[in-house]
């Protein structure tokens, strides 16, 4: 007859033994070096995502009030004041009666509070557009912090970091995480 290799102990005794272990030390690492490690504290977003108001459509950044009354049969004409491409800073502002051409993801110019989709407009000469549908404030844009607010918990203490977690933390601008040392 062979001897069993397990000596069973009551669960209470097992918990006592585990409680007697010294906690693992904490170290701060670049997230890229923390894959597979367990977070020792919550990780918070260092900035808003996105960190600026941006267009959610190709179209024209406008003041929503300037589009009131626009329709297929009675377009509102706005003067084109410039354009903002994705990845560039908005250097032109929207004022009463003007519009700024924007691409999807572009920074919303100062003064704008909505985006008219390009499908709802027509070019009228070199510097005018005809708006054929009104928009309301906040339409077709993403506000700063709409995805993630600065200070929001994005990974919780006790989580083992995987590759996708590391990628997400890097994308959020997290440069250091507190993790438990490997035993």
Task: Please outline the helices and strands.
Blueprint: H1 11-19, E1 26-29, E2 43-44, E3 54-55, E4 59-62, E5 76-84, E6 98-102, E7 114-117, E8 121-123, E9 128-131, E10 141-142, E11 153-155, H2 163-171, E12 177-180
Parallel strand pairs: 5-6
Antiparallel strand pairs: 1-12, 2-11, 3-10, 4-6, 4-7, 5-9, 8-9
In whole angstroms, the N-to-C terminal distance is 37 Å
User: What letter string, H or E per element, gives the SSE order?
Assistant: HEEEEEEEEEEEHE
Low-confidence stretches: none
Question: Considering the protein shown, what is the CATH homologous superfamily of the largest domain?
Answer: Molybdopterin biosynthesis moea protein, domain 3
- Radius of gyration from CA coordinates: 27 Å
Q: State the strand order across the main sheet.
A: 7-4-6-5-9-8
Q: How large is the count of helical segments?
A: 2
- Looking at the overall shape, the CATH architecture of the largest domain is Beta Complex
- Describe the global form: rod-shaped
Q: Biggest sheet, open or closed, and with what strands and sense?
A: 6 strands, mixed
How many independent structural domains? 2
- Class based on secondary structure composition and strand pairing: mainly beta
How many beta-strand elements? 12
User: What is the share of helical residues?
Assistant: under 10%
**Percentage of β-strand residues:** 25-35%
CATH class category label of the largest domain: Mainly Beta
* Assembly level: single chain
